[in-house]
Amino acid sequence: MSAPRQDPLRDPRFFADPYPAYDRLREGCPVQRVPTGSGGHSAYLITGHPEARAAFTDPRLSKDTARFFADRPSDRDLHPAVSRTMLTSDPPAHTRQRRVATPLFTAGRVRELRPYLTRVVDGLMAAWRPGTEVDLVAELAVPLPVTVVCELLGVPESDRATLTGWSHELFDATDTHRVDAASHRIGDYLTHLVETARATPGDGPLHSLLRDCDEGGLDRDETVSLAALLLVAGHETTTQFIGNAVLALLRHPEAFDRLRRDPDLIPGALDELLRFDSPVSVATFRYSTEDLRIGGFDIPAGFPVLIAPGAANRDPAPFPHPDRLDLDRDATAHLSFGHGIHRCPGAPLARAETEIALRTLLTRFPHTRLAVPEDSLTWRRTRLTRGLTALPLRLA
């Protein structure tokens, strides 16, 4: 099958519903060369599940973006704290930074946080009343993970809304200059935050994180980049996870009713909800450092490689009838959190936040429904993450 003539991930219809495009691409070839952008560049897009899983663990696919773009002209101007994070590095630098980040999100640590997470959710929903309308995205899905990660970083409440806005701009697929500007606002802010904390003795969460960074051998720039990664990745994907999960349940009343009747089923349903509408549509940048084969398909050296968890999670081979939300399905093989050494270390926290949000919503407002026609919902215009701009609900 010939490669698409235009970037298939920039079609306006893709943002509203990427799955028909993913199906066509996967059926044509699960690993294929596609155009990217409008400058004549191309990349290899991976849409099959076994191929994506293999690519996530192949050491010949590097995430070192600085190395890839070192000799390539570019008009991009991302702040180093955003462009040179753990997500854009290979071992041993990646190993050193991940060793600091992982303990923040262990299962035990998240269990300790659950009472706090519950208090945050309760506070956000305290004014909600049956018969009223709320925007789930603006009033719960955004502020919940933002509040949690900002507490971890010691960000004052007065600054959180501004940081959230910058983070959203960072994922704007339509305006690279806006993305670059947002990266500098975030990077400059966090640099100041870290330097201020270092100059001010204390025992808060940020001071604890800074001690961990020092003990882990991270320098100042690496410490700021870790803070940036925690801020952006720590809430963007969780926001989309919560919104996508609630919409999926509203679109499938039998699943909604089942969880409403037995909220203890919610933890076991999270993997299927993640699989069904992944908050990560296309994983972050990788490139081939040498000629290689993925699933029997050749990828030459020196090409960007895009792994699409959103497509892999709808592959009918591991997931029969993939377009059906099936709470009885074993969906643990989904790739929404990635796979291998770059698998999201914050996955346990994201799951806990979403579980508590869903449990509280279904328990307090068991007959909630959409407050607007479904076809009026709009989606954020970014191919990296998939999420709604708003989710108006009528509480009941």
Structure write-up:
- The chain is α+β, with helices and mostly antiparallel strands and 396 residues long.
- Helix content is 50%, strand content 9%.
- It has 17 helices and ten strands.
- It has helices spanning 12-16, 19-28, 49-56, 65-69, 80-83, 93-101, 107-124, 136-141, 143-153, 157-170, 176-199, 205-215, 220-251, 253-261, 266-276, 309-312, 347-364; strands at 31-36, 41-46, 61-62, 133-135, 286-288, 292-294, 297-299, 304-307, 369-370, 392-394.
- A five-stranded mixed sheet has the order 1-2-8-5-3.
- A hairpin with a 4-residue loop joins β1 and β2.
- The protein is globular, with a radius of gyration of 21 Å.
- The N and C termini lie far apart (50 Å).
- 43% of the residues are buried.
Q: Beta-strand percentage?
A: 5-15%
Sheet/helix structural class: alpha+beta
Strands in their spatial order, largest beta sheet: 1-2-8-5-3
Tell me, briefly, the overall form.
globular
Task: Give the helix tally.
Answer: 17
Distance between the termini: 50 Å
Q: What helical percentage do the residues reach?
A: 40-55%
Backbone CA Rg: 21 Å
Q: Uncertain regions: pLDDT < 50 for 5+ in a row? A: none
Order of helices and strands: HHEEHEHHHHEHHHHHHHHEEEEHHEE
Question: Mean pLDDT across all residues, rounded?
Answer: 92
Structure summary, number of beta strands: 10
Largest sheet: 5 strands, mixed
Keywords: Heme, Iron, Metal-binding, Monooxygenase, Oxidoreductase
Pfam families: p450
Family: Belongs to the cytochrome P450 family.
Organism: Streptomyces stephensoniae
